[in-house]
Amino acid sequence: MTQERTGVATFKGNPLTLVGPQLQAGDQAPDFTVSKNLLEQATLKDYAGKIKLISVVPSLDTGVCDAQTRRFNEEAGALGDEVIVLTISADLPFAQARWCGAAGVDRVVTLSDHKDMSFGQAYGVLIKEFRLDMRSIFVVDKNDKITYVEYLPEMTEHPNYEKAVAAVKELL
């Protein structure tokens, strides 16, 4: 039975149901399967040995998600080769590629959770009502241990960019 959490997140004040566990710093990062493109899949193991800043957005085609992804794209350049910034959304892979091209985003890796919602369920961010992933941030160390988590209580709010980047820098 899949765990559901209600009352922990909202969209414009309306309650949402999140599916999956509420992870915290110190937890082992769960594996997931997402799409790199229509034919290739990616899992947590594909980024082994890297510090991972995982930026989760509902859809790149919305204002806050756009700003969040652009911000982490800028930050990625200064974080170095030991760090990979992953942006995960339920957008289709070709929509992600189109958005990245139009936005000039080239330092983050966009991954699509559209097919199985594997990431959303494993990380507790699947929004039952919309079949999207809730805005959140996870920092995962080289040994796949979660060191920082931010679940946004309101879908339309920005994450704490400074704290997320500081959490990554602590691992360098």
UniProtKB/TrEMBL annotation:
The gene is tpx. PANTHER family: THIOL PEROXIDASE (PTHR43110:SF1). InterPro entries: Redoxin, Thioredoxin-like_sf, Thioredoxin_domain, TPX, Tpx_CS, Tpx_Peroxidase_subfamily. It comes from the Bacteria. Pfam families: Redoxin. Thiol-specific peroxidase that catalyzes the reduction of hydrogen peroxide and organic hydroperoxides to water and alcohols, respectively. Plays a role in cell protection against oxidative stress by detoxifying peroxides. Keywords: Antioxidant, Disulfide bond, Oxidoreductase, Peroxidase, Redox-active center. GO terms for molecular function: thioredoxin peroxidase activity. It comes from Paenibacillus mangrovi. HAMAP family: Tpx. Residues 23-172 form the Thioredoxin domain. Homodimer. It catalyses: a hydroperoxide + [thioredoxin]-dithiol = an alcohol + [thioredoxin]-disulfide + H2O. Its EC number is 1.11.1.24. This is Thiol peroxidase. It is an enzyme of class 1 (oxidoreductase). Belongs to the peroxiredoxin family. Tpx subfamily. The active site is at residue 65. The lineage of its organism: Bacteria, Bacillati, Bacillota, Bacilli, Bacillales.
